[in-house]
Design brief:
Blueprint: H1 3-30, H2 36-67, H3 82-117, H4 125-138, H5 142-165, H6 175-192
Helix pairs in contact: 1-2, 2-3, 2-4, 3-4, 4-6, 5-6
């Protein structure tokens, strides 16, 4: 197995998991069956799956370097220290996921705190878990684009709802914007990022 084949397997596995998770969230939301307990379990699954991917990437990185007697082996002990390999692997493979998990945790905390001070009028309980799931799926720095898109879609949805009910008093939740923004960023984020210099935030 080559490095490219291994990377493709990992990439397609991540895509498959993302599609399944997003599909379940969308259909449960459409059926009014989206609940916080199921989303909490899904958030744990996504987090653990991401950590497993990191472990596989680090193990694969070591394996392919060790198999490359002409060049790769010189990046491993005894030619390089274990500290060098660990630092290189963690920076390339762990850091983006660590930032994504930290962002997800922060957004969950921020949404929960916001609800506390606004009597639950802004975020529904399951919205806090959707934010966490989104942070892990779109990663860093895609999450910055995700938050911007959520705001734009929420404003548009609010305007459309106000026009439909002919009142500005109609309550609008963020759930639709939170869900729809995930696949939009996953699909179009890479094309949009260069125009807004988003990848300058890459670790």
């Amino acid at each position: 197995m080559t490095v490219d084949v291994a990377n493709n397997i990992i990439q397609y596995s991540q895509i498959a998991v993302s599609v399944v998770v997003l599909g379940l969230i969308f259909f449960k939301h459409r059926a009014n069956a989206l609940d916080a307990r199921w989303l909490k379990k899904t958030a744990w699954f996504i987090a653990l799956f991401s950590l497993a991917v990191v472990g596989i990437k680090i193990g694969g990185h070591y394996y392919f370097l060790a198999q490359d007697n002409a060049f790769g082996k010189f990046f491993l002990p005894p030619y390089q220290s274990w500290q060098w390999f660990a630092q290189d692997s963690l920076q390339k493979n762990l850091a983006p996921y660590a930032v994504a998990l930290a962002l997800g945790g922060f957004m969950y905390w921020a949404a929960t705190l916001t609800n506390k001070y606004f009597a639950g009028d802004l975020f529904l309980k399951h919205d806090t878990y959707i934010l966490f799931i989104a942070a892990v799926l779109v990663g860093w720095p895609g999450f910055m684009l995700y938050l911007s898109l959520v705001v734009i879609l929420a404003v548009l949805y609010s305007v459309m709802t106000s026009m439909k009910h002919k009142t500005t008093a109609a309550r609008v939740t963020l759930t639709n914007a939170l869900i729809v923004s995930i696949p939009l960023v996953l699909i179009f984020g890479g094309a949009i990022a260069p125009y807004i210099n988003l990848w300058k935030l890459t670790i």
